[in-house]
Amino acid sequence: MAIKTYKNYIDGKWVVSSSGETFDNINPANKKEIIGRFQKSNADDLNKAVKSAVKAQEGWRNLPAPKRGEILFRVGELLTKYKESLAEDMTREMGKVLNETRGDVQEAIDLTYYTAGEGRRMLGETVPSELNNKFCMTVRMPVGVVAAITPWNFPIAIPSWKLIPALVCGNTVVFKPASDTPLSAYRFVKIFEEAGLPPGVLNFVTGSGSEVGEPLIEHHSIKLVSFTGSTDTGAQVAHKCAWNMKQYSLEMGGKNAIIVMDDADLDPAVEGVVWGAFGTTGQRCTACSRVIVHKKVIKKFISRLLKRTKTLRLGDGLKNTTDVGPLINEEQRQKVLGYCKVGVEEGAKLLLGGNIYNKGKCRSGFFFEPTLFAEVSPKMRIAQEEIFGPVLSILECKSLERAVEIVNDSRFGLSSAIYTRDVNRAFKAIEKLDTGITYINSSTIGAEVQLPFGGTKGTGNGHREAGTTALEIFTEWKSVFVDYSGGLQKAQIED
Description:
Elements: E1 8-10, E2 13-15, E3 22-27, E4 30-39, H1 43-62, H2 65-81, H3 83-94, H4 98-116, E5 126-127, E6 134-142, E7 145-149, H5 157-168, E8 172-176, H6 182-195, E9 202-204, H7 209-218, E10 224-228, H8 231-243, E11 247-251, E12 256-260, H9 266-278, E13 288-294, H10 298-309, H11 330-346, E14 349-352, E15 371-374, H12 381-384, E16 391-397, H13 400-408, E17 412-413, E18 415-419, H14 423-432, E19 437-440, E20 456-457, H15 470-474, E21 475-483
Parallel strand pairs: 7-8, 7-10, 8-9, 10-11, 12-13, 12-18, 13-16, 15-16, 18-19
Antiparallel strand pairs: 1-2, 3-4, 5-6, 6-21, 14-15, 17-20
Helix pairs in contact: 1-7, 2-4, 2-6, 3-4, 3-6, 4-5, 9-10
């Protein structure tokens, strides 16, 4: 069977790269399978994409926002129509199980329907003036041309967080997806085309970070960079944007923790920890990689957690018998293996896993055993650094106060959770945990699109995605003063 070659999307046309080169998209569950070939783009392709976005921006901005919202609503309907095939393609190219890829697409559907409605709101403020016969209000303006740079772990949901609000606000976009998951991004862009998005409003360019990503960030016509990825790369994005005096929105890493108090219902706590730690094979920025358990229940909790984790079945995410899919590639698998070796060297107790998994049909993919470490101290590297794999560290605490200290002792601040039956403890945790998201009696994963998503410290730069707060990223405020007095009035000046 011939391998299909996919093209870039520039100015409403599907075109090959001027480099004449392509790269292979590999199935991580079966590295022998090439899913497709994608354009290995260069600066020339990027410049054409940006030029197209600049040319289209004025026309798109002048289209009334409710009309922009109607086009995006059609995107939501098409996502719904193609949900199952989108999910299957996503599982093939990034590995997570089919129920999770369906959830990925559903999040994009929810976000699109929700944000399309902002075309009829796009709220500003009216406030009283200090002078008579004068009216004061604020309105939103689009930023201009936006660069959207997205990761591989949520290859439709995360792009939707960027593309949909950017477009409804009147911006045009150059979209650079992760090289590990270009097929999902390609299909997403095809849906915008089918929905009737005008040419040039959304441009799609595949390729490496060095050949496409960095020049895109530095391009003088890009007014805002919206980036999701590692904290180290995000810091480089921030530096380049600050140097070039352009705006940037960063959603980066996490070292998320679940607290299990001595009064917790342990069975749902175990389920929440397993889902948080091993869902998406631990490859989520919100994954639970630390669980902090009260000393009174830690033995009982570990016993139940160990028993439950041993039941997890590894395999191809397209099979309904699979609980945990592969890691995204061999580089990531070696990184996870390296952290497991570090954990043992640091003195943590390896309870389960810690090795590459290559049994049976998993031999052809990038599989890794679900891994549990006990007797972990807060300063160990496995308790501090983002591993992005199926590795969970178990720590002990004597009190809620100590548990909160351990959670907050991190360079990251994305998601946190606590299992407790005590409402006072729950609200104290909400008050004291230094994270952008906190769950009570639930796992660290499972955001909803009507609320802001993002974190503190090394997780972000203060912006939030989703919810109405997404409009803050993709618009500029303009204050408007209308004087209908018929004469010159001077604010703050006494005649």
